[in-house]
Amino acid sequence: xxxxxxxxxxxxxxxxxxxxxxxxxxxxxxxxxxxxxxxxxxxxxxxxxxxxxxxxxxxxxxxxxxxxxxxxxxxxxxxxxxxxxxxxxxxxxxxxxxxxxxxxxxxxxxxxxxxxxxx
Length: 119
Hints:
There is one protein chain. The longest helix is centred in the middle third of the chain and has 36 residues, at 58-93. This protein has helices at 2-26, 35-55, 58-93. It is rod-shaped and about 115 Å long. By secondary structure, the chain is mainly alpha-helical.
């Protein structure tokens, strides 16, 4: 019974994830997933598999998933921060030059000033 429930749950998880991927492909804008999210997902999946194999029950899988997700989040966060520091260092070393745009001067009118001197 446990194997049946586990396989049904796994199947439904992949079906739901697959439908979300299909929906994401139809949208015009795509937002990249952060390293933290990727790390948490990969760590959670790996931890669940390892916990299930080691503990031989669902409780071990849940504990493994939680620990793996936490560890994956920390590792992904470290990668994100490292990439941010590299981008900032590059931008400091290679500043952007402002674009010089020629602006045509507006037409100017000349006025004559007459001075009158009183003696």
